[in-house]
């Protein structure tokens, strides 16, 4: 700085420093605004997913569980749609795994033979412990819970598969050129018996 004022070089350096500072400030502000906008969209999407799942639960409570797979794509909440958001929903049957892993050679085994074999194996396990019936009931000799599960699960498995459905709601929306989304899964249980499909009955006969 001279006695008469600032030199051109000093002014240019000051302007450059000011420009860099303003750029950093504005960039952080834009980033904060984008984060806030994304949070708002995710909050709206979560609300729409909750609304859609509630609609599915209401339909199931009135009509009962669908016998077959049921799916559709709509604007999420029927009475309060939000532009830019889309829901894809699916209600499907569940397939419970078999109790215990079996070898490939046992895949064609008759269910009754499999139950008898499991019962025999469980009884041999209990007998090998050498306990009294009181000790077995108390769980001190052999695994009574495993024995009960092996006997009861094959009977309960078809009933559970008929009375439980898996409902999945997928919410999608756009954020610029990118598509965002997430899935929400819930298991539905109805007191009403699942409707019987006429085609399945004819096939069984």
* Cα separation of the termini: 103 Å
Largest sheet: 4 strands, antiparallel
Q: How would you describe the shape?
A: elongated
Regions with little confidence, pLDDT below 50 for 5+ residues: 101-105
Q: Helical segment tally? A: 5
Mean of pLDDT:
75
User: What's the domain count?
Assistant: 1
Kindly estimate the percentage of residues that lie in beta strands according to DSSP. 15-25%
Helix content: 40-55%
Order of helices and strands: HEEHHHEEH
Mind telling me the C-alpha Rg? 32 Å
Structural class label:
alpha+beta
Per DSSP E runs of 2 or more residues, the count of β-strands stands at 4
Main-sheet strand order equals 1-2-3-4
Task: Provide an overview of this structure.
The protein is of the alpha+beta class and 205 residues long. The chain has one domain. The protein is built from five helices and four strands, in the order H-E-E-H-H-H-E-E-H. A four-stranded antiparallel beta sheet has the order 1-2-3-4. A hairpin with a 2-residue loop joins strand 3 and strand 4. Helix 2 packs antiparallel against helix 4. The model is unreliable at 101-105 (pLDDT under 50).
Topology diagram in text:
Layout: H1 8-63, E1 70-74, E2 85-93, H2 111-129, H3 133-137, H4 144-163, E3 164-175, E4 178-189, H5 198-204
Antiparallel strand pairs: 1-2, 2-3, 3-4
Helix pairs in contact: 2-4
């Amino acid at each position: 700085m001279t006695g008469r004022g600032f030199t051109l070089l000093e002014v240019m350096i000051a302007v450059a420093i000011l420009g860099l500072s303003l750029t950093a400030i504005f960039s952080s502000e834009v980033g904060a605004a984008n984060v806030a906008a994304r949070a708002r969209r995710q909050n709206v999407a979560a609300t729409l997913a909750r609304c859609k799942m509630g609609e599915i639960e209401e339909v199931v409570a009135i009509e009962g569980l669908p016998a077959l797979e049921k799916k559709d794509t709509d604007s999420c909440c029927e009475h309060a749609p939000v532009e830019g958001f889309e829901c894809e929903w699916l209600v499907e049957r569940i397939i419970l795994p078999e109790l215990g892993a079996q070898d490939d050679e046992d895949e064609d085994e008759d269910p009754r033979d499999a139950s008898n074999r499991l019962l025999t194996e469980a009884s041999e396990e209990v007998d090998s412990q050498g306990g009294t019936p009181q000790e077995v009931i108390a769980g001190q000799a052999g695994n009574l819970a495993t024995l009960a599960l092996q006997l009861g699960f094959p009977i309960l498995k078809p009933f559970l598969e008929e009375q439980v459905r898996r409902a999945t709601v997928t919410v999608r929306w756009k954020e610029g050129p990118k598509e965002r989304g997430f899935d929400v899964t819930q298991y539905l249980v109805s007191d009403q018996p699942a409707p019987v499909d006429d085609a399945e009955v004819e096939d069984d006969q």
